[in-house]
Amino acid sequence: MTAGVYKEVILDHYRHPRNYGDLPSANARAKDSNVLCGDTIEMELRLKGNTVDDIRFRGQGCAISLASASMLTELSKGKSISEIKKLGKKDIIRLLGADPGSTRIECALLGLKVLKMAIYAHLGVKMPEELEEA
Amino acid sequence: MTLNVSKIRADFPILKRKIGRKPLVYLDSAATSQKPKPVIDAIERYYKKYNANVHRGVHRLNEEATIAFEESREKFARFVGAKAAKEIVFVRNATEALNLVTFSWARASLKPGDHVLLTEMEHHSNIIPWQILAKERGVKLDYVKINDDGVLNWESFEELIKERPKVLSLAHVSNALGTINPVKQMAQEAHKVGATVIVDAAQSVPHMPVDVLDLECDFMAVSGHKMLAPTGIGTLYGRYDLLDQMEPFMGGGEMIKEVHLQDARWNDPPWKFEAGTPNIEGAIGLGAAVDYLSDIGMQNVRQHEKDITKYALDQLEDVRGLVLYGTRDVDKRGAAVSFNLGDIHAHDLATILDTQGIAIRSGHHCAQPLMERLKVPATARASFYIYNTKREVDLLVHALETARKMFKA
User: Fold this and answer.
1) How far apart are the first and last CA of chain B?
2) Chain A residue nearest residue B362, CA to CA
């Protein structure tokens, strides 16, 4: 619950989201929304073997959800599926540079949830439910 | 100012709280109000002096608890101008009151093809029970349109009343826009075509004089926690002849006169609708809240809120990039003010304001159809009550300026 989360870098990602748009060559995609805010994030990935070769996202929402999704796309490019699976709450907080607090953490985690949904859908495996504690 | 606000503030222990190093500026009373010491004390007194079940048993504590419980019902009945206390059913909140009406009255009274008239500014609690009924009974839901200034479109109402709806169910005051709807005129038109009128008064009874007979409504739903009382207590007002015809809402103790293995005889209203041990502390707290508001005078409450809302609208209008929703005419609106600032998401705004100790609501206010109508995903909402000051409005405006600079909005 601190304004500390609204750092320049967050606002910059919010104003100028990275990897924003469509990825026509994608072979994995997912979309989800956060009930509280109505925030929506959609991710499209091109997976080559076990690696995220390219990624795009689109969405609507608050600065925390869009900035964390934007930062997450930068982080994921070139990462392996197993590395993505291991990402969790603490990694997102590290990306944001501050803990957004219990009332806003859902916003911050939406991008990661959608990214994992895309990966698990691609693998045809049910996503484990303990994402938040990961 | 018509109220002695500093004296009132002294009655609210929570207003001494600090959020971080900042004093709490509580601008979220439309979500739930804070509680004054007389209400907290009344609940404590009940548990310390006469805690017992009501309408059961004959010992002294039973008697004292039952008297206090039923006195609260009488106080509330007088507060809203009901003819008799037996027209007041204790429920959990306005949501439960509306569900009770749709379940026990509308389910038995409406036929497939009947029209139910609602408005575009309803809270989900006055939409979803009707949608459930529509699926079950095949009734048709119509919605009175709103104008861009958040006021109901009278032509749309007149058009839809021609469908001869069996029900008109609407908010007296919109929780998201603050609009005060002309319920009395609408009730008169609706009664002419034989409709039953249900009023969601969750945002009006706490803030202005309300008289059910003057309003000409048949049912009215209220939440106690928005009017200084604890959570978990609310009321349904119902015209006695309607309550008397209705089947029960839930079955259990209290709601029966006699029970045999194969059948039972229902108790009289309001107890027919109060199965199980009720929220006794809640009812007693509600009685104390009614006393507290009555001592201030609801006309004075309304005047104070008009003053502070006018001041807030004037100040907010000067914030660059701020968009206000709802009418500017304080005679036609209550003290909930919805807005957005530039392209800052309402949740980001609420988080930034929180760092200044300022509590506002952000989101869709349980009125998603209204948000769709306004074409916004969410709004920020500041809402005022008897304990709020113009100084607090200034702090809000200052914090909004800070947010605007931070976001370069």
Assistant:
1) 34
2) A37
